[in-house]
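Here comes a specimen:
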Amino acid sequence: MNKKIMSILAKRDAAVLERDQASSAKKEALARPDPRCFYSFLPLLALAAREEALQQRDKALTERDKALIEKDDAFAALQHHVKSLNFALSEEKCCEGDDDWYCNDVGLIFDERRTMQVLVCTCTDSLHISVTNGGNGGWQSSCCTATLSQHPLPQVPNKRHSRVGGKKMSGNVFSRLLSLAEMI
């Protein structure tokens, strides 16, 4: 296996050396044109035209890139300006009006652990809520499924924004359970 790799590397090195020799011979021939022959100057003219075309292309590409960068910067500045205007407008709307609602404690959220009554499950006599209502649907606690309640599940005291274990029921299922409870 190593012999194959070594032979491939040797062939590659030989090809690179041959290419370098050919390019240096070509450069020497182009550097010393024959002054008696007009055709000996044609490769030099072609190379000069090619170099000029490449320089023009590079210049056009850099101009295009600069224009794209300027466009992106202008767009970002405009977005920043629009965001700052929207922020200022929303700020002015908040400041307008009376502050009566602030003084009367309207719109404040109270801790529901202080205001909610302790409920006992009628099946197991444990301090859990069997089925509770929460908006369109309801919460069915993990202790039982026999009775219904209209109170939200209590919060877990050591975790913010979390409730006692149970599963969320869809609005249709919960309304059917409520209608069955009313029939009983």
